Amino acid sequence: LVLISLVTVLGPKGASVPLHPLLGGALIGAAQAASLILTGNPVGVSTGYEVLGFYFWQTLESLFGHNLRKPPAPLKSVYFAAGIVAGSWVLVRSVPSAIFETGADISAVRGTIGGLVMVLGARLAGGCTSGHGISGMSMLSVSSLITVAFMFFSGFGSALFV
């Protein structure tokens, strides 16, 4: 809420760019620092899918009499993802809809398939774009540097074909 208030107050009124990139980057860095200080965890969501999958398979196997004997996965990333969804829901209902741009109309089926492909890619890459781009880059993780470089390379390459 503090960051949203700062963006609202400090962002230019009526401009095509809602926030100066340097201010936006500073706020993202502040959010990352707050996450590390307050929770001890970097910003990232895709681990939540892995944790939910762990509990799904653990439940399924226990129904058939198998015992995994593994420690339960921590739910921090699931809580973080739920907080993002809840915060988005509150924001959309509390802020005038005039500031939100409408995107392309996408069917529920295409949106679901796209989401599943995105999650698969995030797990194959060892993290999502926010995890690698914000958290990994801020900690100078080699795997994140490589992943982000390929994200940009892929984006530029696919833009040539569109």
Topology:
Elements: H1 2-10, H2 21-39, H3 47-63, H4 76-94, H5 108-124, H6 129-138, H7 142-161
3D structure, described in words:
With 162 residues, this protein is an all-alpha fold. The chain has seven helices and no strands. It has helices at residues 2-10, 21-39, 47-63, 76-94, 108-124, 129-138, 142-161. It is globular. It starts with a helix and ends with a helix. The model has no long low-confidence stretch (mean pLDDT 79).
- Main structural class: mainly alpha
Largest sheet: none
Number of helices: 7
Mean pLDDT: 79
Work out the strand percent. Answer: under 5%
| Order of SSEs | HHHHHHH
Given as residue ranges, the uncertain stretches (5+ residues, pLDDT < 50) are: none
Number of strands: 0
Q: Assembly type of the shown chains?
A: single chain
Shape: globular
Distance between the termini: 37 Å
Q: Radius of gyration over alpha carbons? A: 19 Å
- Approximate helicity band: 55-70%
